[in-house]
């Protein structure tokens, strides 16, 4: 069965990025000139997703406005003859069908996914977390979908991270099927470094099947008192095979200030309209610091 639906949990409070996220959603922080969430929506669309559900919460209206038609803005751009910008702005609203549901309480990622149950129905679906911006030739979700099509089971995006950072992630133990594809045999949410089963971290892209819902429904709170998707996946892995994919591409943790800064520099160096000048500027600043 084709994967046409994706769930975007966006109810998080963005505490790692305060004070910028005090009154505006972290998903709307701009990487150069596009909000983070737009990069992730574009990744989903490029992978063939046709319907997106935002699991949203209080203070997230800017996301809805961003993907809606802005009548006044479009009229103004038309009047001024700014046709390229008009097209760009309109495309955002026409890119994909978007649905919204509110997660009334911040009870964790697993709980957010459970809020998508009716939208998902009885189909496989994707989950994309907006903090992880993945710069890849083939969209990361597309890489996961290739694995799903071949192995017909849930697939998690994996990345090897330095052991001193492993406690920031869900961590897996996994057996290699190929050099990039694994069968996951154990999962732990944000383990202590000495208890981590490996250096392989779960990154914010998943292909899941509806079998996860009855497990999530009964899932007890785990790490941080939250209903954890990782814990539910561990239970599911006892009954059916779960796969991991070491994706190709560069991942930026944009929910973190330093990660966001690195992503901005990286993306700016790729933008033809100003990359030469920006690179010169960076070089000059670095030279001055060394003096
Ligand atoms: C969530 C997941 C975690 C995963 C991470 C990837 O954690 O619970 O397993 O490794 O996303 O970004 P969060 O960063 O939302 O706390």
Automatic annotation (TrEMBL):
PANTHER family: UTP--GLUCOSE-1-PHOSPHATE URIDYLYLTRANSFERASE. Keywords: Nucleotidyltransferase, Transferase. CDD domains: UGPase_prokaryotic (cd02541). GO terms for biological process: UDP-alpha-D-glucose metabolic process. The keyword Coiled coil does not apply. Gene3D superfamilies: Spore Coat Polysaccharide Biosynthesis Protein SpsA, Chain A. Pfam families: NTP_transferase. It catalyses: alpha-D-glucose 1-phosphate + UTP + H(+) = UDP-alpha-D-glucose + diphosphate. Belongs to the UDPGP type 2 family. This is UTP--glucose-1-phosphate uridylyltransferase. GO terms for molecular function: UTP:glucose-1-phosphate uridylyltransferase activity.
């Amino acid at each position: 069965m084709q994967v046409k639906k994706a769930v975007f949990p966006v109810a998080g409070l963005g505490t790692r990025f305060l004070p910028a996220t005090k009154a505006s959603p972290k998903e709307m922080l701009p990487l150069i000139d596009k909000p983070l969430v737009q990069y992730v929506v574009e990744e989903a669309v490029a992978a063939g997703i046709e319907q997106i559900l935002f699991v949203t919460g209080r203070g997230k209206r800017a996301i809805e406005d961003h993907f809606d038609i802005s009548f006044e803005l479009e009229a103004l751009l038309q009047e001024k003859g700014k046709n390229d910008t008009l097209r760009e702005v309109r495309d955002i609203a026409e890119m994909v069908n978007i649905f919204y549901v509110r997660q009334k309480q911040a009870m964790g990622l697993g709980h957010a996914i459970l809020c998508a149950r009716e939208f998902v129905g009885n189909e496989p679906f994707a989950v994309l977390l907006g903090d992880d911006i993945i710069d890849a030739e083939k969209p990361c979700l597309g890489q996961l979908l290739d694995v799903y099509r071949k192995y017909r089971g849930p697939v998690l995006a994996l990345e090897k991270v330095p052991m001193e950072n492993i406690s920031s992630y869900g961590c897996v133990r996994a057996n290699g099927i190929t050099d990039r594809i694994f069968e996951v045999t154990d999962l732990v949410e944000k383990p202590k470094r000495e208890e981590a089963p490996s250096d392989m971290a779960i990154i914010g892209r998943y292909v899941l099947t509806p079998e996860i819902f009855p497990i999530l429904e009964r899932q007890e709170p785990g790490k941080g008192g939250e209903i954890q998707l990782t814990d539910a996946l561990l239970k599911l892995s006892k009954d059916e095979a779960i796969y991991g994919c070491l994706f190709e591409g560069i991942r930026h943790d944009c929910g973190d200030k330093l990660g966001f800064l690195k992503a901005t520099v990286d993306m700016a160096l790729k933008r033809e309209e100003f990359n030469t000048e920006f690179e010169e500027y960076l070089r000059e600043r670095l030279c001055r610091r060394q003096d």
